[in-house]
Every structure is written in structure tokens, then in C-alpha cells.
């Protein structure tokens, strides 16, 4: 018993030490920083000044609004698309199933930087997407040069990157739904659409919650895409909280203010995750 | 182009057994829809290859080339001159592999203990790990930067690797797998007089190969794709990781898109090849315990 206890603590020690040094310490230090102002290496305590400054900071509000717009449109769009695709692929006799699954998942293995850059090139004014749209008489669309389309670009790019990933999660969960339920529903006269809403969605509820929470945390931390795809512009229309933290921290070296914004993100993640748990119900 | 071809060939192939196809799980419409999504998923990859093998201007012509060109080596040489591709690739590879090795050891050991041993504070520690998964990276970014800067560790592999070594999600993943390991086997081995370390190494670990592979891939990908931390932790271009170097190309005043596309291709193709070779491990690694 004693040897087991020694073994336990020894095996756990590296993880705990690393956790204390690189997670707990920074999280606390960041909170302290958010109440400070640092000037040439000298930090002074300034109370809630960084937080009150947030209220009057237009760019912060813009970043917050942008994040929410992207969140409210992108996450449901992606999850619905992923559900539809998973539902389409969830037929035992579907041909080329493996091929479709791999094709849809492929965007998820690209690095965030690589795909953001790829999209920033495709979405240029004279890029391939406008060229193709031009062939069918649309455009040219100012994907990266107008605020509305720049947000749309981010949403489209993110949806391209993550839909297949979520689809595979849903597909795996659907394997656990017995086929007999669908057969019984069909005998009772329920159509495909009805089956989708009455069987597929309810049985995937926990997994949808899981995907929703992952996407929420992901969207609130959004950084790689605006940094590489739109550089936050035009006119801060794609500024995200993550990018604004980075700019304050490493362009203006205002560590205190950047930490205050970071703590807003921490609180938002907590609140949104809590709401999602409540909305989806059940424990 | 290929989109219309696909859409057109779909119905022709399945026109005869239409009724059976429909009964079997969706008619032609379903395949057309799936084909459209496939094109949308795949086309950017194709365009990436076109861009990497052509001169920059071809990508933005009024009638763009849809065929691969022969400029790959020119683009590659230019890319190498701008970012020192071998150096940054080596950086990324070394950092990702070292990280994978050490993080796998740290997380696996912790996960095993958390799954199979009773001791004071176990639940508390596990809950802390779980909760910390919700903390955004940005909340630790600045203190970590200050720490590394104070210790003069910026621009070192250590700074790139250390902060994420204890990765709660990997612990969670491995713990799930250890929980499924029969405790009776452990007890039997103990009765036979085997020590804890030996039990772990020779009895438990060998049965965990699929889980270890999945976790290893997950850890590797996390580090390989990491951007924000390397961006602030490296300031000299010879310590850049590949994503940071790639991103820096887009910040130049004159951007040579042929080079950039070549870089994007080099960042993407090896991962795709590994993915196709190890599909099952790869998917379960990337999705974590969501997929069993």
C-alpha cells in the first residue's frame, strides 16, 4: 500500500509540477497583471482601471461584437451542415462512403495558418473565387476589402476547416443509434426529414453539446484566422478578442490591459459553456 | 469545371438501377449533393498545388490556369531564400517530436495513476485538470512570455515545448483508456510480486498501443500547428517554427504568392500523407475520446 502511494505521487509529480508552473502560476499572474500598469519594467497597482477602460474602448467592443457575430452564425451553420452530412453518410449501403468521409475530413488536418493563408489568396479581389463567380456573372465581391464580406470570409473559411471534423464526431455517435429505430419510424410513416429531427438530433444531443462547447471555446479564442486571413481589417471589422489581446500585449506592450481582456474571455467561456449545458438540458 | 463533370456523370452511372439505389439509401440527388461538398472540400487543396507549381501571376489571371505548371523548383528556391525552409522545417519537426515524446510520458504517467490508484487529492487533481481545459490560451500567454523573457529563454526549443507538456486533454484521453484496463490483472501481478513500475511497463502499456498512437498523433498535431505561442516566444527568424515563418511571408511589402503557396503545400502535403496512411489512429487522435 505504501509503495503504491509512493508510486502514485512519483508518477503524478512531473505533470503536477508542470501544471503549477505553466498553468496555475500564469493564470494567477495574469489576474494580478490585469490590475496593474507596467511602465518600463515598473508595475504599479491601478485597481480596476484596466477594466473600466474596456467600457470606453471602441475597438474592444468591436472585437466583442465581431466574435459574437461570427460565433452566432458560424457555429450553428457548421453544426447543421455537419449533421446533414453525417446523416447522408450514415447509410450502410452508401457507395464511396470512405471516400466521402476522408474528403470531408481532409480540411481538418491542415494547419490553421496554412489554410488561412490559402483562403486569403483565393479570396483576393482578382483571386480564383471571384474568377469562378465572374464566369457565372457574379461579382467581383470584395471579400477582404469590405467589412461585411471580410466577416463572411472568416465564417466561410472556418466552416470549410471544421465541418468535416464535426461530421466525423456525429457520424461516430450515429453508429450507436440502432438502425431498427429508423426502420420502425419509416414503417410508422415518418419521412426522412421527420426522422432527422425526431431521431437523429435527439440521440446526438450530448455529442452536439460537446461539439458546441469545443467550438465556443475555439471561437472566443479566434486568432490564427483573423491574423493571417484578414489581419483584423478592414477597419477592425474582423478584429477578434484573441487578436486584440495579442496587439495590446505585443504591439503596444500594455500587458495589464491585454490581461484584462484575456480575463473577459475567461469569464465569457465559462458563462457560455454554462448556458450551453443549461440549454441542452440533462445534467 | 470538375464540379459540372462530376454532377453530370453522377446520374448517367446510376440511371439504370435508379429504383434500387433509391431504396438503398438515397437517390441520385444525394450523390450529387455529396459530390458538390467533395469538390468544395478538395478544391482548395488542388488550387494550392496549382499555385505552388505556377508563377505568382497565373493565380490572378483573368482566365486562371487550372493545370499544374513547372515552376515548383523556382518557387521552392525563392521560398528557401526568404525563410530558410530547411531550418524552419527542422525547427518545427524537432520541437514537435520532442514535445510529443515528453508530453506523452508526462501525460500517460499521470493518467495511469489517476485512473488506477486511490490516494488523497485524486479527484481534486483530476477536476483541476478538467477545468483547466476551459482556460483560453490567451489567459496564460503574457505571464508565460514574461517568464521566458525573464529567464532568458526566448528563442529556445525549451520555451516552445515546456508550457504545454502537461496537456490536460491528453491526460483525459489516456485516463479513459486506462479505466477500461481490468484491475484484476494488476492485482494478480502484484500477488506474483511484480513491482508497480514493472507492471506498468510490461503489462499495462503494451495493451495501450492504439490509445498511445492516437494520443501521440494528437500531441504532435497540437505542437505542429501551434501558432500564437511560437509567434511570441520566437523573435529571431532562425528559431521560427514553420507556421510562424509562413505567416511572416505574408507580412512582406511585396508578396510572391508562388512562394507562399509552395510553403502552404509543404506544410500540408506531409500531414495529408501521414493522415491517409494512419487514418484510423489519426481520426481518433484528433477527435479524442469522442470517437471510440
TrEMBL record, chain A:
Gene3D superfamilies xrefs: MetI-like
Name of the protein described by the UniProt record: Sugar ABC transporter permease
Stated family: Belongs to the binding-protein-dependent transport system permease family.
Cross-referenced CDD domains: TM_PBP2
Native species: Fictibacillus fluitans
Membrane-protein topology: Multi-pass membrane protein
InterPro entries xrefs: ABC_transporter_permease, MetI-like, MetI-like_sf
Pfam family for this entry, one: BPD_transp_1
Primary localisation category: membrane
Subcellular location: Cell membrane
SUPFAM superfamilies: MetI-like
UniProt entry tagged with the keyword Transport: yes
Coiled coil: none
Keywords assigned by UniProt, alphabetized: Cell membrane, Membrane, Transmembrane, Transmembrane helix, Transport
Entry's transmembrane regions: 7-28, 68-90, 102-122, 128-150, 204-223, 255-275
Ranges for domain ABC transmembrane type-1: 64-276
Automatic annotation (TrEMBL), chain B:
Domain ABC transmembrane type-1: 89-278
Main location: membrane
Keyword check for Membrane: yes
Annotated signal sequence range: none
Annotated transmembrane regions: 28-49, 93-115, 124-145, 157-178, 199-221, 257-278
PROSITE patterns recorded: ABC_TM1
Subcellular location: Cell membrane
Alphabetized UniProt keyword annotations: Cell membrane, Membrane, Transmembrane, Transmembrane helix, Transport
Membrane topology label: Multi-pass membrane protein
Presence of keyword RNA-binding: no
Family label: Belongs to the binding-protein-dependent transport system permease family.
Name of the featured protein: Carbohydrate ABC transporter permease
Organism (species): Fictibacillus fluitans
